C-alpha cells in the first residue's frame, strides 16, 4: 500500500512537471510566430507620416516626396496659377471635388488648406500612371489654351493645377489629396491631420 501511495504521488509530480515544462515550451515556441505577426519597423515607416521642409519651394515650383510608397507632389502656386484654376471650373468634371477623394478641408476649388500650396498624390485615377507636370506655355501639344497642370501621356488624361480632372478624358476622378497639416509656416506633415477640425 505504501508503494501504491508513493507511485500515485510520483505520478502526480511527473504529470505536473511535464505540464509545466510543456506549457513553457509551447509559450516559448509561439513567441517567434507572434512577433512576426506585428509589422516590422520598415513596414511601420512606410505608413508613417512624412515631415517636409517647404522653405526653399519657390512660387511655380513643385517638389516630390514619398508617402506610403506613393509620390506626393507639393506645388507652390502663383497668383496667376490660382486665377487660372478659377477660370477652369466649367471645363473640369468635378469642380468642387464632390466625387473625389480628399479630406473635408480640401473639398474646395483649390483643393487645399492654403490656396498657395497643392499637396496631391501624383498617381492618375485612371490606371495608376504618374502624370507629367506641364507648365503653361510648355503644353502647346496638349491643347492650344493649356494653362498648366498634369498630363498623363499613357491615355491622355489631363488635370488642372488643383488636380481636378478635365471633362472627356479617361480618368474618372480628381487626383487624390492625402491627409496633411502645416506644423509651421515652412513645414508640413503628410499623412497626419488629426489637429485639424
SS-derived structural category: alpha+beta
Helix tally equals 3
In helices, the fraction of residues equals 25-40%
* Structural domain tally: 2
SS strand fraction: 15-25%
Shape: elongated
CATH class bucket of the largest domain: Mainly Beta
Poorly predicted runs are none
| CATH homolog superfamily of the largest domain | Rieske [2Fe-2S] iron-sulphur domain
The value of Rg in angstroms is 29 Å
CATH fold node name of the largest domain = Rieske Iron-sulfur Protein
Q: What letter string, H or E per element, gives the SSE order? A: HHEEEHEEEEEE
Largest sheet properties: 3 strands, antiparallel
Which strand order do you get reading across the main beta sheet?
1-9-8
Number of strands: 9
CATH architecture of the largest domain: 3-layer Sandwich
Would you write up a description of this structure?
- It is a single chain.
- The chain is elongated and about 105 Å long.
- The chain has 3 helices and 9 strands; from the N terminus they run ααβββαββββββ.
- By secondary structure, the protein is an alpha+beta fold.
Give a short synopsis of this structure.
The chain has about 200 residues and is α+β, with helices and mostly antiparallel strands. The protein has helices at about 1-35, 40-45, 80-85; strands spanning about 50-55, 60-65, 70-75, 115-120, 130-135, 150, 155-160, 180, 185-190.
Amino acid at each position: 500500500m505504501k508503494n501504491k501511495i508513493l507511485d500515485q504521488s510520483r505520478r502526480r509530480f511527473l504529470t505536473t512537471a511535464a505540464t509545466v515544462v510543456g506549457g513553457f515550451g509551447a509559450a516559448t515556441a509561439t513567441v517567434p510566430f507572434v512577433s512576426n505577426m506585428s509589422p516590422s519597423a520598415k513596414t511601420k515607416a512606410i505608413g508613417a507620416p512624412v515631415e517636409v521642409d517647404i522653405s526653399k519651394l519657390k512660387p511655380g515650383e513643385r517638389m516630390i516626396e514619398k508617402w506610403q510608397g506613393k509620390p506626393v507632389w507639393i506645388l507652390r502656386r502663383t497668383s496667376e496659377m490660382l486665377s487660372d484654376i478659377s477660370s477652369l471650373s466649367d471645363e473640369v468634371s468635378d469642380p468642387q471635388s464632390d466625387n473625389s477623394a480628399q479630406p473635408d478641408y480640401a473639398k474646395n476649388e483649390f483643393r487645399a488648406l492654403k490656396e498657395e500650396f497643392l499637396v496631391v498624390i501624383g498617381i492618375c485615377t485612371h490606371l495608376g500612371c504618374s502624370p507629367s507636370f506641364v507648365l503653361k506655355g510648355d503644353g502647346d501639344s496638349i491643347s492650344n489654351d493649356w494653362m498648366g497642370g498634369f498630363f498623363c501621356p499613357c491615355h491622355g488624361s489631363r488635370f488642372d493645377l488643383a488636380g481636378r480632372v478635365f471633362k472627356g478624358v479617361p480618368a474618372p476622378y480628381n487626383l487624390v489629396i492625402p491627409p496633411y497639416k502645416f506644423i509651421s509656416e515652412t513645414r508640413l506633415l503628410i499623412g497626419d491631420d488629426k489637429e485639424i477640425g
